[in-house]
Amino acid sequence: MRDQAPDPALDAALARVGDRWSLLVTEALLGGPRRFKELSDRVPGIAPNILTDRLRRLEREGVVVAEAYSARPVRLAYRLTDDGQELAGVLRLLAAWGGRGATAEGEGLRHAACGSVLEARWYCPTCSRSVDDDEASALRYL
Questions:
Q1: How far apart are CA 108 and CA 86, in angstroms?
Q2: Is 98 among the domain residues?
Q3: 87 pLDDT band (50/70/90 cuts)?
Q4: Are the CB atoms for 43 and 72 separated by under 8 Å?
Q5: How many CA atoms lie within 13 A of 8 on its CB side?
Q6: What is the pLDDT at residue 102?
Q7: CATH number assigned to the domain comprising residue 30
Q8: Residue-number span of the structural domain to which 20 is assigned
Q9: What DSSP state is assigned to residue 29?
Q10: What is the pLDDT of residue 104?
Q11: Is there a domain that residue 78 lies in?
Q12: Does residue 69 sit within a domain?
């Protein structure tokens, strides 16, 4: 059996936000704009130089935007772009997956109305129905 080439779309996603600190910084911004110190407090253990590097990288990738809230001295607040906001669902799925592996009870996102653990499903808007994994075909971005 021949090895399949890596998915170029996954490779591109990992190139944009594929390290621990970038994902944690992105998660810290899901609640809204934050100043550098606030981000530093919300991402325990991150060194200031690493935080600066990740913010700059995420900004270059169009995930984060820096906005000045003070001109003298220049002070910045960081917020997610629309593109960065799209990562929210991915981060929630990743956190739920990680939580299931860490506990026997299968923690995850819960439905506020009844408390049940939520399940992620593929959905086809054209057919207006859920799609099983065996019905889904990988979409390759070339």
A1: 19
A2: no
A3: confident
A4: no
A5: 4
A6: 54
A7: 1.10.10.10
A8: 8-85
A9: T
A10: 45
A11: yes
A12: yes
